[in-house]
Amino acid sequence: MRRPGLFSTLLLFVFVGPDPVRAESGLASYYGGAGKRGEMTCAHRTRPFGTFVTVSSRSYSIRCRINDRGPFVRGRVIDVSLGAARALHMLKSGVIRVSVE
Predict the structure, then answer these.
(1) Which of 8, 28, 56, 78 is the most exposed place for a label (fewest CB within 10 A)?
(2) Contact in structure between 53 and 63 (CB atoms under 8 Å)
(3) Contact 90, 63 (CB under 8 A)
């Protein structure tokens, strides 16, 4: 049986592409911008507006909607709203390690 060559493997990658649902991990911070009180929103660099992500840290997990771009600080993967930060218990520390799915 013939093994696929490099060209056919590249074609498969181009047409199928990488998995659009991917988990990320890194640092998260929060912002206290104007918005509805307690709203669970977040800012992400690349994911589409309106999509929901699950942000988990330690034993806490929330579901928030992406409505902004950011964070613009190296090493951070997501910025969450004040309401989401309260739910993640990160108000004291300001920056925590999270997993985003």
Answers:
(1) 8
(2) yes
(3) no
List, as one string, the DSSP characters of 51-78.
Answer: -EEEEEETTEEEEEEEEE----STTEEE
The chain-wide mean pLDDT, for the chain, equals 84
Q: Six-digit token pair at 64?
A: 């928030």
Helix, strand or coil, per DSSP, at residue 79:
strand
pLDDT digit string, tens, across residues 68-96 = 999 999 999 999 999 999 999 999 999 99
The whole-model pTM stands at 0.75
Nearest to 90 by CA among 32, 46, 47, 45: 32
Vertex 74, ends 70 and 78: CA angle to 5°?
40
What DSSP designation does 16 have?
H
Taken as a whole, the chain contains a residue count of 101
Asked if omega into 4 is within 30° of 0 (cis), the reply is no
